[in-house]
Amino acid sequence: MTLYTTDYLEYYLTLVAWIINNGIWNVLVASGIFALPFLAIVVQEWLKARAEGADEGNKGVLSSMRIENRVWVAIVVIMFAGIPFIPLDLSTIQFDRTRSTQCQVNVPLPSETNWSASFTTINNQSAHVPVWWFFMHSLSKAVTGAAVAAIPCGTDLRQMRMEIDSTRIADPVLAQEVADFTHDCYGPARARLFMSRPTLSEEQMNDVTWIGSRFFLDTAGFYDTYRSRGPRDAWPYDDARDAGLAEVSSGGGYPSCRQWWLDSGDGLRDRLLAQVDPSLLSRLGQWAGFLSQAQADDSVIRAIASPRHQVMNQGHVYTDYGGQIGMTLPNVATRAVSDLGLTVGSIGMFPAMDVVRQALPMILSFLKMAMVICIPLVLIFGTYDLRTVVTVTAVQFALFFVDFWFQLARWIDSTILNALYGWHSPHSNFNPLMGLNNAFGDMLLNFAMAMMFIILPGFWVIALTWAGIKTGGIVGGLATGSMDAKSAGGSGSRIAMAAATKGAAK
Q1: Residue 33 neighbours by CB under 8 Å, 6+ apart
Q2: Does 124 share its domain with 190?
Q3: Longest Cα pair distance anywhere in the chain, in angstroms?
Q4: Secondary structure letter of residue 86 according to DSSP
Q5: Residues 145 and 246 in one domain
Q6: d(Cα 120, Cα 123) in Å, to the nearest integer?
Q7: What span, in angstroms and rounded, lies between the C-alpha atoms of 343 and 346?
Q8: Radius of gyration of the chain (CA)
Q9: How far apart are CA 393 and CA 389, in angstroms?
Q10: FRET label pair with 237: which of 155, 176, 423, 441, CA 20 to 30 Å apart?
Q11: Distance (Å, whole) CA 30 – CA 375
Q12: How many other CB atoms sit within 10 Å of the CB of residue 480?
């Protein structure tokens, strides 16, 4: 018999939770505490019978029948929901890759990751699971998996763009060389372009706004004419190419700007591309099927080559909700203030919510573990009542089904981003940051989508109350658990703004 999990942390914490659960149950049995609910049942029913009127009949007979009914229910609860029965270890817990297989994404097994090294202490341990909770775990995973399978496959674009945005040039020497290339090549080429005033298409006008411009690389008189003003060790001195220029002891030459950028291995393009995670480039290329891999790579290089992340499109992408064509002066003033507020708020909000999106699945795994650990004590305090079992069962199913709402929120988020920045999008040029540095309408959309990861699970819990099921503050636990991570994620922007303000004051 196998239990399925869909998260690396859940894979190990499931076994940890049941090991602790078994330990608590063994203590309760060994100390005799597990029998106290039977005494409580007798006392409760006896007091209840005494408080009733004479019309209820003989109090002794009435109380004995009620006690008998509750004792039988308690015995059934203990047998199926209390006594550990089905053996469980890491060999009987299976990492479910059905969704990744469906969407043709290669997800490694836990044993193939560093998670296995971190949890080696539980490799040889085992536990036992009561029949009812084993059944509910399997049923909850089956229903959740079927619901997730109904969601169309897609790429998590928001996570991908945040990875691109967080990519920086780690090598300071390379960063300085990019600055040198901008000074020696891009500046003179752009100045010559303005002097010649050629007629450019919209695509070409966008292309010439960054240092790796194909127009400058492929058009005679630009990068093939200009060269590095200082010697470069990666390009040996060439008498024909470097005639009249000083030879240095290192033997470095003066490559043309085209060589400096395009040469395989030593060129700036390849070295900048090496700063990016290869898996990120692969995912971007698979999603952006409307571009060649070289074009997708260039878009990423363009995003990281500029200190402020080169912006392809500035201004409004689409008409926002409630927009007016002819705005009055008060409308303009109000919109300007609100836009400023959105801008300032987004600086802290977007990194914070990205942290929340990463933290929520981990917090959910912790909540699942905590629920399993609490089961024996909850049954004791609930006097093995059937209603207690039903409530805990509902909570367990609700926790497992929250996974579906996370996946749905991710899919909706990525679908909207794909509509705005994918093939045939309102943008004439591809932007790998996908609105991260774009218009205020995008900011408003991002605020709304970020909250979906809390609102959708919250609505799910509220929906359960319609059926009379009280699941407690599950969503409150998610929100509280991610609060510190959210604050820490947003604090980075506040620190940066404070540093910038301090620097400007000097």
Answers
A1: 27, 380
A2: no
A3: 120
A4: E
A5: no
A6: 5
A7: 5
A8: 32
A9: 6
A10: 176
A11: 17
A12: 11
SS3 370: helix
Residue 298 lies in a domain: no
Q: Report phi then psi at 232, rounded to 5.
A: -125, 120
Closest CA to 218 of 236, 204, 238: 204
Can you give the residue range of the structural domain that contains 178?
168-275
Residues 96 and 172 in one domain: no
Per-residue model confidence as pLDDT tens for the chain (506 residues): 788 888 888 888 999 999 999 999 999 999 999 999 999 998 888 888 777 656 555 666 777 888 889 999 999 999 999 999 999 988 888 888 888 777 766 677 887 777 676 676 676 788 999 999 999 999 999 999 999 888 887 766 666 766 777 677 777 788 888 888 888 888 888 888 888 888 888 778 878 888 888 888 888 889 988 999 889 888 989 888 888 888 888 888 899 999 999 888 888 888 888 888 777 777 777 776 667 778 878 888 887 776 554 333 333 322 232 333 344 555 555 555 555 554 555 554 555 566 666 778 888 889 999 999 999 999 999 999 999 999 899 989 999 998 898 888 888 877 776 666 555 444 444 455 544 444 455 566 666 666 777 888 888 888 887 777 766 556 555 555 445 444 444 444 444 445 444 444 44
* Structural tokens at position 467: 């059926």
**Domain end (from 246, 275, 304):** 275
**What's the rounded Cα separation, in Å, for the pair 398 and 258?**
59
Number of other residues whose CB lies within 10 A of the CB of residue 128:
17
In a domain, 190, yes or no: yes
Q: Could you tell me the two tokens for 33?
A: 């505490």
Q: Which amino acid would we find at residue 302?
A: R
- Tell me: do 246 and 138 sit in the same domain: no
Q: Is residue 224 part of a domain?
A: yes
In 10 A of CB 504, how many CB atoms? 7
Inter-CA distances, 270 with 44, 190, 297, Å: 77, 23, 10
Residue 178, classed as helix, strand or coil, is: helix
State the pLDDT at residue 353: 62
Residue pointed to by tokens 């015995």: 75
Note whether 93 and 201 are same-domain residues.
Answer: no
At which of 275, 304, 323 does a domain end?
Answer: 275
- Same domain? 101 vs 174: no
Q: How many domains does the chain have?
A: 2
Residues 137 and 186 in one domain: no
Residue with tokens 């608590």: 24
Name the amino acid, one letter, at 120.
T
Is residue 308 situated within a structural domain? Answer: no
Residue with tokens 């004590």: 377
pLDDT at residue 19, rounded to an integer: 93
Instruction: List the one residue out of 281, 409, 287, 417 whose CA is nearest residue 357.
Output: 409
Both 119 and 176 in one domain: the answer is: no
Pairing mode, strands 93-95 and 3-5: parallel
